[in-house]
Amino acid sequence: MLNGRDGSPTPRLRLRQVSTDIKVVARPVSLSAELSQLFVDIPRSDCVKIVFAARTANFRARQTIFLAGNPINEILLLTEGSVKITQLGEDGSAVILRLEGPGGVIGSLGLVERAEHCSMAQAILPCKALIWSVPAFAGLSERFPLLKRNMMRIVSQRLRVLEGRFREISTKKVAPRLARELVRLLPQVGRRVHNVLEINLSREELAQMTATTLYTVSRLLTSWERQGIVSLRPQTVAVQNLLCLLAISELR
User: Fold this and answer.
1) CA-CA distance, 229 to 244, in Å (whole number)?
2) How far apart are CA 166 and CA 171, in angstroms?
3) CATH of the domain at 185
4) Are 119 and 155 in contact (CB under 8 A)?
């Protein structure tokens, strides 16, 4: 997926162009990744060692990070931006499994040798990520047992979220499903712009996340915009009235 590694030391942070799309940075951008679930309970001194074992990369908006079927060679930890994880059905239709914001882990956490990605990852916004090779990350997991424990916790949480979404699709109507998905996305990928929380997703992407049609999502969002609950722009939903959205999410 990523090429052009440069292991030589550099005295200061510099960017080196390695392709038309990706820039690799010689050292990690910051230690803000410590706030990720990946580093829960790990002493700060150990977090520093783990982070500085990584390299960093920048991804432009809508850039594909990896495709289903690509070999799993690297583990990515998002430090800026947001990424969607998508699977395609046999008929070519897409379903968004989840979104990852800063602190989210992109890719497989199983660290299985010669495994392949079963989904596609695409940047929604311009992104920065810390990147470890699978062998390097496996070595760090053995050296720092809390890192391995946290990986398993993240996998478990992903499964719980998928189970909850499946239950909602089976038992709830579209309006509360869509409202609940927007509420769930706010702390993950929401951005505060002029005192309003925005989610950078298209209506088609929201339809893919809630197992419904583009027409239904457009109809509901337009109705909510007339009521002052949300405001709409291309590729963006801004939440104007969170309490009303929460009330809709609780409907059956």
Assistant:
1) 7
2) 9
3) 1.10.10.10
4) no
Element (H, E) at 79: strand 74-80
List C-alpha distances in Å: 41 to 21, 29, 153, 210: 36, 22, 12, 34
The predicted model scores a pTM of 0.76
In a domain, 9, yes or no: no
> Are both 244 and 133 inside the same structural domain?
no
User: How many separate domains does the chain show?
Assistant: 2
Give me the domain span that covers residue 87.
15-166
Tens of pLDDT along 133-169?
Answer: 989 999 999 999 999 999 999 989 888 988 888 888 8
pLDDT by residue (tens digit) across 170-220?
888 999 999 999 998 888 888 888 778 899 889 999 999 898 999 999 999
φ, ψ dihedrals at 68, nearest 5°: -60, 135
Q: Which two tokens stand for residue 220?
A: 């509901």
Q: What whole-number distance in Å separates Cα of residue 161 and Cα of residue 167? A: 10
